[in-house]
TrEMBL record:
NCBIfam families: PRK05581.1-4 (NF004076), PRK09722.1 (NF007266). It is an enzyme of class 5 (isomerase). Pathway: Carbohydrate degradation; D-allose degradation. Its EC number is 5.1.3.-. Its cofactor is a divalent metal cation. This is D-allulose-6-phosphate 3-epimerase. Signal peptide: none annotated. PANTHER family: RIBULOSE-5-PHOSPHATE-3-EPIMERASE. It catalyses: D-allulose 6-phosphate = keto-D-fructose 6-phosphate. Belongs to the ribulose-phosphate 3-epimerase family. AlsE subfamily. InterPro entries: Aldolase_TIM (IPR013785), AlluloseP_3_epimer_AlsE (IPR043677), Ribul_P_3_epim-like (IPR000056), RibuloseP-bd_barrel (IPR011060). The keyword Isomerase applies.
Length: 226
């Protein structure tokens, strides 16, 4: 399967929002939008207002990652703003996971969960049949530029094995420090989607179209023998 890339838009140059989005519209599989509340993680980033404006200039699926303590408060706003996929951390919704996943799917959107480095793959067992995507954090959530945690690749393999054994349909995705130093080992795990941010994409060139070409070339070179 050909690798899919999802640029993390909290890492883009927001002063060049339209220019950079339009440069990636023909190549990005998804746009990854992080929404943080300053409580679940000690950072505040993008918002449903950002999704609303992104929707105006792209048909690329908008994939929202909620790093918030109360996803039930943000999910309706993301749906209204035009998000295509909405994922949250299961620790934030233990007593309402089925209700939230159903709410997202009933709105005609795709749903997912995000597993922290220390959260086991088995966590999703009871509702895996509902999921369209499972994201594995390969760094602790909340900030860009952290060190890659290689043990998380075992979780990707476990999720793929579960999918094959039970006929689940979710995509697997990895989030955190996807770049030239890690592409080869990540690709070997069989993951479907790579989220790329500062080190993997935006810092490669001031021109994001050129940065994308460089990223693809690096990925092809690093994974040629994977």
């Amino acid at each position: 399967m050909q690798a899919k890339f999802s640029p993390s838009l909290m890492c883009m140059d927001l002063t060049r929002f339209r220019e950079q989005v339009e440069a990636m519209n023909s190549t990005a599989a998804f746009y990854h939008v992080d929404i943080m509340d300053g409580s679940y993680v000690k950072n505040i980033t993008l918002s449903p207002f950002f999704i609303e404006n992104l929707r105006k200039i792209t048909d690329v699926p908008i994939d929202v990652h909620l790093m918030v303590n109360h996803p039930e408060d943000i999910i309706p706003m993301c749906i209204e703003a035009g998000a295509d996929i909405i994922s949250f951390h299961p620790e934030t919704a233990n007593n309402k996971i089925f209700r939230l996943l159903t709410q997202i799917k009933d709105a005609g959107r795709r749903c997912g969960v995000v597993l922290n480095p220390a959260t086991p793959a088995e966590t999703i067992r009871e509702y895996a049949h509902l999921l369209d995507k499972v994201t594995v954090m390969s760094v602790d959530p909340g900030f860009a530029g952290q060190t890659f945690i290689p043990q998380t690749l075992n979780k990707i393999r476990q999720l793929i094995a579960m999918r094959e054994e039970h006929g689940y349909h979710y995509l697997t995705e990895i989030d955190g420090s996807c770049n030239a130093r890690t592409f080869k080992q990540i690709a070997a795990s069989g993951v479907d989607v790579f989220i790329v941010g500062t080190s993997g994409l935006f810092n490669l060139d001031d021109d994001v179209a050129q940065a994308w070409q460089k990223m693809e070339s690096i990925f092809a070179e690093e994974t040629a023998a994977a």
